[in-house]
Amino acid sequence: MSPALEEYDLLIVSDLHLSEGRHPATKKLSLNEDFFFDEEFARFLDFHVHRVPERPPGKKWHLIINGDFLDFLQVTSIEGAPPELSRDPDRPDYGLGCGAAETVFKLKIILDGHWLFFEALAEFIAAGNIVTIGKGNHDVEFHYPEVREAFRSELRQLYAKKLDRENDSGKAHKLAKLTDEAIRFLDWFYYEKGLLWVEHGNQYDKLNCFKYWLAPLLPTKVPGLARSRAGDVDLPWGSLFVRYLFNRVETAVPYADNIKPQSKFIAWFISYQPLLAVHFLLRHGTYMLAKMARAWRRVPPADYANREAQHRKRLGELAGEWQIPEAHLQYLDSPSLRAASVLKEPRGWWRLYGWLTRQWRFVVPVVVVLLLLPQLSFLAPLFDWLDRFPAVHYWLTTTAGPFVRKAVSVFRWLAAISAAVAILLPRLRSLGKVRLKPKKKLSELARRAGPIRERLNVRYVIMGHTHDTDLQSLGPNGQEYFNTGTWTKVFRPEEERLISDESELVFVQAMRQANGLKLKLLKWDDPANQPRLVKLFQ
């Protein structure tokens, strides 16, 4: 870490998930958009630049955006895309691929759709502050140097247009502040010796982790892979789920991925809109499964040796840049701490099956029943039609026919009953006295934070990814784990809202003191135009 960074106070946010935003012509929001706080974020930055009490004059901020800043996965528009950019050959409506050129095109869409946000971010930097962007599983494309440089360039151009509109006489001076040193990027983590470790956290999630986080691209030559896809990101299970199914679901239910966790939305979707759920599963789910199956076998085992070599090389470079013993980073990257990808590790299918049955409970069998049994019930009219033929009539009345008819009838009734249960069960459970669920167990990320703190001997560990705000003790001397929640809208059942932890507009504020850092987990209270402590329950 550059010694100069130790002079800055810290603001740490994560999981903003900016995607297409407002269409520049219609000013209407994309159905896949999850970030609706452009003006609020602008006021959040303005407050910290101008109105934080009891700060020494001239003290500057270092804003760390800790992963999932931009949601490239949910940018599906191809309007105006050059023909040479890769599209899915079977379904171009899923959007462009994940290569460097394709991501630069998506980046321009995001900046155009959130111009207020990025103008405020540029103003923040022009005031002498700096911004560091860490990659997450939704914006792993920041791995590409071309994407990083395009972000800097597009931000400068957008800010220059704003200054021109305002006839700002200080344009040249302000634009000169938007240097590469003021707009930084992280390959994995942010670290301050003895004090702080910050990373996104997806590498501890089996559905969203990458086998090689520092070398996440497909090889340039893979048998059976289109040449246009060579060098693209090797997406994990969760990213394929978003790209090929969830984006489609959001066209009908725009708030789909604002219900957290996603397993809760899936249960609600199947229970309250079973026909629509089956429609999406049949039309898009099967295509998603085909893509996942292809990803499972896409990379030859021998090629992983090259990917691993690239990953290990970059890990060694990071150890030198941040002055961390390489053995410590190897431990943090080892299978004993990080999760095993369900797509890229042995026995991945079994881990995926275990997660589905554990997280979705009755939802999986209900989906199976809804998909299979109604299909079998359609055989009844077929039998009625075949019964008109003498030979078939004889078979249906004298041999196995009665048994088959009875089985089809039973299947039809089971299909009707299962659909009724799926629709009525949530309503029956909601009748009577409201029972608040006990606090969930310590999160997986918090469990991983303990070994990270011990190995690196830091006081604080900060992650995001889960969209669940959290604060946990990691030791007897004030060591703590923070999760910064999200800046997207989170929907919860009415009866849970009063006693639920706050997850929206959450950030960590870290102020420099003589003995280190003083951290606060805060929520931006926009009506009051100031932050306040996050509401967390025991």
Task: Write a structural description.
The protein is an alpha/beta fold. It folds into 2 domains: 8-211 and 324-357 and 441-533, Purple Acid Phosphatase, chain A, domain 2, CATH 3.60.21; 362-430. Helices cover 43% and strands 12% of the residues. It has helices spanning 38-50, 100-113, 115-126, 145-165, 171-176, 237-252, 262-272, 274-297, 301-322, 326-332, 348-360, 363-377, 379-386, 390-398, 401-430, 444-456; strands at residues 9-13, 61-66, 130-134, 183-186, 189-192, 196-199, 460-463, 470-473, 480-483, 506-513, 516-525, 530-533. It has a 7-stranded mixed beta sheet. The chain has a 5-stranded mixed beta sheet with strand order 5-6-7-9-8, covered by helices on one side. β5 (189-192) and β6 (196-199) form a beta hairpin. α3 (115-126) crosses α4 (145-165), α6 (237-252) runs antiparallel to α8 (274-297) and α14 crosses α15 (401-430). The longest helix is centred in the last third of the chain and has 30 residues, at 401-430. The radius of gyration is 26 Å and the shape is globular.
